[in-house]
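To assess whether the prediction recovers the assembly geometry, we first specified each molecular entity separately, as shown.
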Amino acid sequence: MRFCLGLFALAMSAAPPVSYERDVQPIIAERCQGCHNARAALPLMTAEAVRKSALLGAVSGERPRMPKSGPPLKPEQVALISQWIAEGGKDDSRGWWSLRPLERPSGRNSIDAFVQAKLRDAKLEPSPEADRRTLIRRLTFDLHGLPPTPAEVATFVTDPAPDAYERLVDRLLASPRYGERWTRHWMDVIHYGESHGYDKDKPRLNAWPYRDWLIRAFNEDKPYSRFVQEQIAGDVLRPGDPQALVATGFLAAGPWDFVGHQELKEGTTDKNNTRVLDRDDVVATTMSTFTSVTAHCARCHDHKFDPIPQQEYYNLQAVFSGIDRADRPFDDDPTVHQQRQDLLRRKQAIQLRLQPLLDRVEFATSAEIVALSNSIQDASLLITHMGMPKTPAEAAQKAELEARRAKDQKARQLLVDAMVGPATYAEIDRMKAEFKPIDDQLAMLPQPRFVYAAPSYFDRAGAFRPALLPRPVTVLVRGSVNSPGAPAHAGALSAVPALKARFDDAADEGIRRAALANWITDRNNVLTWRSIVNRVWQYHFGTGIVESANDFGRMGMKPSHPELLDWLAVWFRDDAQGSLKKLHRLMVTSATYRQRSAHRADAAKVDGENRLLWRMNRTRIDAEALRDAMLSITGKLDTTMGGPSVQMFWFKNDHSPIYDYARFDPDSPGAYRRSVYRFIVRSVPDPFMDRLDCPDPSVLTPKRSTTITAIQALAVWNNAFVLRMAEHFAERIGHAQDPLEEAFQLALGRSATTEERRAYAAYAKKHGFANMSRVLLNTNEFLFVD
Amino acid sequence: MQRRSFLWRSGGGFGGFALAHLLGREAQGASKGRPEFNGGLHHKAKAKRVIQLFMSGAASQCDTFDYKPLLNSKAGQQWDPGEKVELFQSNPGVVMPSPWAWKQYGNCGKWVSDLFPETATCVDDMTFISGMISKSNIHGPATFMQNTGFILPGFPSAGGWVSYALGSETENLPDFVVLPDPRGMPPNGPANWAAGFLPAAHQATTIRVGTPAPIHDLQAATDAKYITAQSERDGLALLKQQNEGHLADHEGDSRLSARIASYEMAARLQLSAPAVLDLSGETKATRDLYGLDAPLTADLGQRCLVARRLVERGVRFVQVWSGADNGFPRRNWDSHENLAKDHGELGTALDRPVAALLKDLKARGMLDDTIVYWTTEFGRMPCSQGSKGRDHNPFGFTSWVAGGGFQGGVTHGATDEWSYKAIEHPSYCYDVHATMLHLLGIDHTRLTYRHNGIDRRLTDVHGEVIRPVLA
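The predicted structure of the complete assembly is given in tokenized form:
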């Protein structure tokens, strides 16, 4: 398509010179670079490489040798390459778009000007402004994830003031419902979940303070730089602010392999691999989220398409090599907070000296010790396997095993003690005594709170022990822990111009994270500012200016409106000083946003996907908005904010925890709270939300898919929650003077037509309001926002 | 083709776009099986469907299909394979012979232990892949790997990929169905069969065979007393009327018509799903074959029979789980403590139903184009853990496949003399997946989905079709 447009442009003008960037590069990218990538023997990643290659010969002739797969290049394509070479093979590329310097395009100053210029080029007219009823429904779902109330609709529709719309936007942005809505988007992007995932999917009971931090950050309109910095290194950059530590819950948002970390012995291949993959998740999350770069593609080899060497990927791993995911204490009182963190740091320093001595005990081994360990384990296995003894014989057997185990443990301890020697034990005792005064001081402090975040020091659990210092990281050849290569050094990506990509290999891991936080939020980081304005645009308009919100590289999509993207990035960084609320306001007050969403056959013929925005996109509301909308219109919505998540399932904290959604009563305490406060389990998703495309919390989801399936229809038609809400809705409208009018106003924001009144009244008369409500809650009009 | 004509007939003429939505094909790389390839995507398909039997917890190879006489002759001696052994939980114990005796079966003379005497009678139809290796020796990641090809959560399972590639042959049932063990979910839970980044249309539908509400939300909850058969019928009619009115005012949006059609498909599913699960029409001979009336085999017998009935009706991929989570008392194959007891119980419950499935499919002529795939996340060590158990062994284990274009009576790959490490034709799940996809008419390197900057495949960047085992 891109190519055709290029050709079209070519035909229109009088034989202009062929441009590498405009004409040739897209062909090479599409047909050659899949194999001739940066890692290939014959890379074709630059104009110079293409010019110097024997490409033209290979792709032309009756039976071209290249490309190896797919049809030969079209004659026009070969002609373009040929002409470009004939004209000297000049490199007119300005570099990859996302890495170009950020400059404010001149001459234009609003979203609408950029969008309309493109529409004019395509000879398309924008759509007229939508009616007010549509606008308030669109805006309220967009900014709050909720429908407007009938009173809100009436007020807005009849508001004669010229700035009625702007005031509506301001009112919505000032409501705490806004932060709840946009936090949910952020949770998708960073794959936030509240259980570990994998086998033995334990709940994370202290993840929620980070969720509350997000909601507050959005509602208080925390400047974007600080929003980013605090999530990566708030504990380091603002040590006196307890909430800045809570923000680092970001680093721990993703899945975590409980068994790999907690049950595997130190030093084993699988343990090392578990740690590499765990850090990979943090690197991928951080770089995808904030810079829209696929750095994680360079784990096994240099990035095939983008200028990211494997070394730099591991340099990013080295930034995070001093942390793990675990609960971390904090205090709401900043003075107490500071005291506790200082005391913990002192304990960490002692632990660092103590650990090698403890390891002498832990890893003391000999043939006899191993034999006793095996015998101890055998007894333990058999005892566990037996469970509660059921017969006297079993009880006796169990007692015998326990006695044997105790005897073996004692014998083993004696052997270990002899091997370690009294001097080491004395040293251990002396060092442990150093903890005493610190622990005494800690005991004097009030009880802390906890957030599931990324500490470098914490109480050991099983084989899961803190790093204390950054763990050594090397390049791993082909990504294998068994093939270590060159050492890695904390750093970021050299491809981003004008920034220093190498950080200090500080022994204090926090300094490394702070360096990355500063690198990402540097005003000259061209990726960061483009990335966030594109994300916000995507949630408002349905599709990003760059469709691949997490990939601004060569495998991603190119911007539909590159100048607009740059203009927004600079405007957001400089004029709005990183205020997301100002950015929202700018976008939703544009004429582009306020267009009708109606289909137009003529325009659809030119731009069927509406990439040029000749109309607004209609959206199917997502799982959370649907659930919250049902709660809202029944009058049941509980707007309590914050605190521990509501477990909307039956739970048994077994060896492998059990989560069962079918055994949950939709009227349970807390069940009417907004979906953002739902406890999110990784291994067992809520089937209702799942069928409505609520993403897997183990997947980074820059954009949700919207599917329509039979199984989804069954969920909306039959799920216990919906059926119960239908009853509550029936009860609510039953109290109204005109139940039918009330039902339509609440659910759809409009009156019923005469024909609808007739049909619904007849149905309600026969089957009652609850059945009628069930139908309304299933309508397309309820699920789609124009 | 069949799916398309159905919608044209009964859906009142929904356009191709609506259809694409409903079938989850609106997304990138939309693909579907092609008639000129016998339903395959890239080349002619030999197989049309897959039944996967997953032994959760790690079924031992050296107690089932990987016979090593050395374990008997060196029984009780300290095990020393000549190198440092890294075990999951323990230190290497003594060489532990299998608690079961071994016999040769079939024309091929395959050695099978007495744990599976009935399955053993089918060896001439089975292909054993005895050099399997896992990249992880932890249940969670390794179970993910056998399902999705990755040791991380968040990737689509093989069933999801097949659904994405081929769709089902029926409109009345889902493409991909999972029949979990009634004792509970395996490690990772339903994340094992999630759609990952594929559209949700390709996630599995879980059917809890033998429970009062086997499919979540298939019917309204019984405590919603206000719902009657008549209110249901009239309600769906009213909904359709309402949605069609709305559609008339909102032309050009295929999602709206797809949603109307989705309720009609849902209604068909409500009829067809209970019919699949109703085994009352099966003959006495079939009931006996699957062991439905013997307490030990009733559960798996029922689920294997349901699996056959599902694929018979056009479902593409059915997964049957033997074994639940790693809790106590042991309810999966993770026999660290007492292998004879735990493998014994699970194996006995499995043996007859699996043999029945193979024989039944064969008798119905369905084994030719149905792949039966028996797998587990990794194997177990030839030495003992404690006195009666075996620890994890990711270095060598056995999977087997049957039907669907696989040659019967062969064993591909081998472990060393101890059944410790795969030394001959080592295979990963990538190779098995590549081979299965190949038989389904799919080139595994060309079945891709772009996610987060990478064209993802079921086989990652690996996978070789195992040609020697193709018929």
